[in-house]
Amino acid sequence: MFSVMRDHVCQEIDGFGVCLAFHQAGMLRKHPKCDEVMDLLFDTAGVSILRNIVGDGGVWGDETNGPTPTIEPEEGVWQFEGDEEQIWAAREALKRRCEKVMATVWSPPAWMKTNACVHDGGELRRDKYQAFAEYLSRYVREWRDRFGIELTAISPANEPDLVTKYSSCIWSGEQYRDFVRDYLAPVFKQDGITAKVIMPETTSCVDHVQAYTDLIFADEAATNAVDIVGLHGYGYETVIAPVRGAAEHGKKIWQTELCDINVMEEWQRGNDIVNGIFWAENIHDYVNLMDVSAYIYFWGTSIYPNGGNLIGIDMKTGEITVPKRLYTFANFSRFVRPGYRRVTVYGTGAETKLSAFLSPDGHELVLVSINQLEREATLYAQIGETAEDTVRAYRTSETENLAEIAPVKLEKGCIQETLPPQSVTTWLISL
After folding, report:
1. Backbone φ, ψ for residue 341 (5° rounding)
2. pLDDT of 244-290, one tens digit each?
3. How many Cα atoms are found within 13 Å in the side-chain-facing hemisphere of 209?
4. Residues 6+ apart with CB under 8 A from 72
5. What are the sequence ranges of the domains in the chain?
6. CB–CB of 30/81 below 8 Å?
7. Under DSSP, is residue 310 helix (H, G, I), strand (E, B) or coil?
8. Which end of the chain is least crowded, N or C, by CB within 10 Å?
9. pLDDT in tens, 296-313
């Protein structure tokens, strides 16, 4: 038996997102079913955040998976062509139900780094801290003034704790603290930049991210320079739990990258309902156990069958693959819109998980139930007084894709419903 505590309001939801970096936006743009994929992602699934890569001008990879040109290929030399793919994707997403565009730096341009290249780690040179801060400010301003796209947030580093053969840059906690406090914050203030600053987007949580945030939160000026704690969920050792100090300092938490490239079992990579349930439970856990305000899957679409996408595209056949995880993701993203707030759910279900969200005006309650079992389960949820005595619901199961089911009648403010095996159901309740 679950009890939904509508008066116990928790974190505000900023949205559910995807990324189209490393030329996957360009691949999609060339695909014959491009519009269908964009509609599925940003209308049907209602994805509300698009995560971009800040181009670094690297030379690794190719046109199917490689770096994006930088706006400053040499110090003091500016050029604003070459990122048409992501500009197109952002505009198309914003035409639909997407509401926010963020950008992450995988690496500063090579001329700013200790190893003089964008890949294989390296660090930002100390004598280029000011140049990098001005670079990020210019990036935000050009996207606004030149391309008409207001960036909601920007992150100076992607996985600062990891060296890779593709674009990467290492930052220590002290380096990050000094940069955001002494360089980025003053430049953003001077230039009137309103984009939120996200940091540190470490590879996993919680220990990895706290190695950075502990240093930030110990310094008042550095704390004021950061708006959102960003983190990724990779690694078998990942613990999904609150980030120490985030709530006390009024910082939202965004899970900004996670997909199926690091899961432990092959079955978790599939396109079936088992995989869809796996990711629905993952979203539930991040939202309820870590209090994240945003959950971003990696590629919204990609050319790789197991490349961590919500929709696969085949450039040879022109076909698309729509895994069940797109629809179980949509059970959250389509209905839990930016501005909704999570509310506490008491009780436990041995067979089900339940999340609850309240609309900004308090007139709608959204419940998302997950039955992970291979048999039917019964949902009992006490929600209290409602404006109507029936509830609309949308279900994803082995045979359903976000299908609207017959309205469910409330009995004394309680939902009692049999859930199909391995299913995710979203309930829309008028208050």
Report:
1. -125, 140
2. 999 999 999 999 999 986 555 555 568 999 999 999 999 999 999 99
3. 32
4. 78, 79, 109, 135, 138
5. 15-339, 344-430
6. no
7. strand
8. N
9. 999 999 998 776 899 999
Distance between CA atoms of residues 100 and 16, nearest Å: 10
Tokens 């990724």: give the residue: 232
What's the CA gap between 128 and 399, in Å, rounded? 56
* Average pLDDT value for residue range 332-355: 92
- For residue 80, the number of C-alpha atoms closer than 13 Å in the C-beta half-sphere is 12
DSSP state of 405: P
The total number of residues shown for the chain amounts to: 431
DSSP E strands: which ranges in 98-155?
100-105, 153-155
Interatomic CA distance for residues 269 and 306, integer angstroms:
7
- 220, with CB counted inside 10 A (0-12, 13-18, 19+), is exposed
CATH topology of domain 15-339: TIM Barrel (3.20.20)
> What global pTM score does this model have?
0.97
Determine if residue 315 is left, alpha or beta; phi over 0 gives left, psi from -120 to 50 gives alpha, anything else beta. Answer: alpha
Q: How far apart are CA 24 and CA 33, in angstroms?
A: 14
Strands in 1-149 per DSSP E: 2-12, 15-19, 49-54, 100-105
Q: How confident is the model at residue 351 (pLDDT cuts 50, 70, 90)?
A: confident
SS3 373: coil
| Burial call 119-154: b when 16+ CB within 10 Å, e when fewer | bbbbbbbeebbebbbbbbbbbbeebeeebebebbbb
Between CA 280 and CA 83 the distance in angstroms is: 33
User: Which two tokens mark 45?
Assistant: 């699934």
Cα 79 to the chain's mean position, in Å?
29
- Which candidate, 407, 281, 276, 400, places its Cα nearest to that of 352? 281
**C-alpha to C-alpha distances, 221 to 132, 217, 224, nearest whole angstrom:** 19, 9, 5
Residue whose tokens read 């509401």:
99
Residues near 414 by beta carbon (within 8 Å), at least 6 away in sequence: 380, 381, 382, 383
Contact 101, 53 (CB under 8 A): no
**CATH fold for the domain made of 344-430:** Immunoglobulin-like (2.60.40)
